[in-house]
Design brief:
Largest sheet: 8 strands, mixed
CATH superfamily: Gcn5-related N-acetyltransferase (GNAT)
Order of helices and strands: HHEEEHEHEEEHHHE
Shape: globular
CATH class: Alpha Beta
Number of helices: 7
Distance between the termini: 45 Å
CATH architecture: 3-Layer(aba) Sandwich
Radius of gyration: 15 Å
CATH topology: Aminopeptidase
């Protein structure tokens, strides 16, 4: 099974990038990478001052055995901010609560002042929470700027080709809450 199939079997459809876009990112964007092993798949973009983890999937048979923590620790050793998009907790989906608990256990915190809302292909809006880990004292304003870079460079990479629209214009999808 391809890494894309593994990811799309787990993540909600509206969160999955088009397979062509994901392959183009891997093949043509110098910052974007995929690391796949039997126990996990992670796709990410590494910029000079931060890392954006796009997808992290730990195989069901190895969940709860430290695999995800080891992957995150590898990124933490690079001493850069790490940013993630996480589904808000949903009482009907215990995985959402488990993911949040996992990231918080690994030192990530929710960006309380950043609202991030995108639309799926049908125009239905959905909100994701931004979680981050920082090796220094960078505040949420820095995270907001870095997330805007993610929107422009990763989410909108060849988006017109695959979706017929830019899917994450920072001024439209990111808001600062006071």
């Amino acid at each position: 099974m391809s890494f894309y199939d593994r990811l799309s079997n787990y993540f909600p459809e509206h969160e999955m990038k088009h397979e062509g876009q994901l392959n183009d990112l891997i093949d043509h964007h110098e910052a974007y990478k995929v690391h796949e092993e039997e126990d996990f798949v992670v796709t990410y973009a590494e910029f000079p001052d931060f890392i954006f983890i796009d997808y992290l999937l730990v195989s069901p048979k190895t969940r709860g055995k430290g695999t995800g923590t080891k992957v995150l620790d590898t990124f933490k050793r690079r001493h850069k901010n790490i940013i993630l998009e996480v589904e808000p907790p949903d009482g009907d989906d215990s995985d959402t609560v488990g993911r949040i608990r996992f990231y918080e256990k690994n030192g990530f915190q929710k960006a309380e002042h950043i609202e991030y809302t995108r639309s799926d292909d049908d125009g239905t809006p959905y909100t994701m929470d931004i979680y981050y880990w920082t090796p220094n004292e960078d505040g949420e304003k820095s995270i907001l700027k870095q997330m805007a870079t993610v929107c422009r460079e990763i989410h909108n990479f060849r988006a017109l080709k695959y979706y017929g629209r830019l899917i994450a214009e920072p001024d439209e999808v990111l808001s600062w809450l006071h």
